[in-house]
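Bench notes, afternoon.
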Amino acid sequence: MKRNALHQVVRLRRVVLDEAIQDFAECLRKETEAGQTLRTIEAAIAREVDKAGDLDGSDAMVEAFGTWFRRARDDLQTATTGFEQAQADTARARAVMSAARSALEAAESLNSNRQAEANRIEEHHQQNRLDDLAQRRR
C-alpha cells in the first residue's frame, strides 16, 4: 500500500472512531434518561404504596390505588424494558468504539512502521552516495 493510501486509511479510521465516540455518547445519554425514567416510576410506586398502606385511608383510596397501580406496573415494565435496551445499545456502542480505536491504532502503527522503514532506506541510500563520493575522491 502506498504511503498516501495509508494516510487515507488513518484519516478514515479517525473519522470512524469519531463517529463511534459520538454514537457511544448518545447511547449513554439515552441510558441515563431511561434510568431516570425508571427511578421516577419506582419512586412514585413506593410513595403510592406507602399512602395506600395508611390505615386511616378510605376504601375509595384503596380502590383508586389498585386502578393506578395496574397502570404503574405496565409503565414500570415498559421503563424496565427501555432501560435494558438502552444498556444493551450502550454496550454495543462501547464495543464498536473499542474496535474502531483498535483499528485506528493498528493503521497508525503500520503507517509509522512504513515511514520508519522508508526513512531507514533513504538514510541507507544517502550513506551509499556519500561512500561512493568518498571512494571517487581517493
